[in-house]
Amino acid sequence: MAETTQSPNRLTNVIERIAAIRADLAPTAGRIADFIAQNAADVVHMSVTEVAERAGASEGSVVGLCQQLGARGFQQIKIALARDLVQPVQFIQEDLNPADGLADVVAKIFGADLRALQDTQNALDIGELARAVEAIRKAKRIEVFGIGSAAPIAEDATYRLLRIGINARASVDSHVQAITGSLCDRDVAVLTISHSGSTIETLTATKLAKEAGATTIAVTNFGRSPLLSHTDIVLHTLARETQFRTEAMTSRIAQLAVIDTLIAALALADYERAVSTINKTFDVLSIKRV
Known about the structure:
- 55% of the residues lie in helices and 9% in strands.
- It has 2 domains: 14-85, Winged helix-like DNA-binding domain superfamily/Winged helix DNA-binding domain (Arc Repressor Mutant, subunit A, Orthogonal Bundle), CATH 1.10.10.10; 111-286, Rossmann fold.
- The chain is α/β, with parallel strands linked by helices.
- Strands 2-1-3-4-5 form a 5-stranded parallel β-sheet.
């Protein structure tokens, strides 16, 4: 059933909210507010880092203004701006429209997914991939962080790492991530999966892990984000859904492709061990099948 009532927690009318408080803002907050109001259509494509740089402010100041506007953080402001600016159907999938038939839906969804894979292949840095393989091979333990839509990707990555004989553990709870990050050391490599690179839970955990001495690896969408400040190695995806939605499938398909590539490279680097472990785990899992 179509939604007919507005949720009390839904943030709307961002530009009007800015106008209402603009006269009372401090100079820094005022610059940020003016930038958002004057560039709303561009802001929905940007990270908090990019907005801070363009407005001549800190990321903390951007988040602070967002909270003054009634949001939990910058991501909620982006979503609210997009909702104010675009047709509701674009929150289902960009480029769709209500007149599309099923054949159109199939063509557009598969086209978007294929484009995300092709763009990600071009964005993936082979040198960074090699560094990630080396870091994981050297580490005694791999911690994998992901939350929300990235959580199943983190769990899949952990499963795949275990299947080739690499000691890995997924943390998909924010409290567990924070504790795990703080308990890392130089023998640990952390693999963080975050499409936006701005998710506060995984951002905090990755920062804690890096401060504790771990080598940090991120699978994140191309562009500037706060996560990059706490990451040693970056494996970029390139999914267009950043424009309006952060929960569609294109980012996860791109992330899975990067993880698949990383696992294959790791397996080839330690071929005998990987094959031996795959065979052993296959035998173990065979008892689970009828």
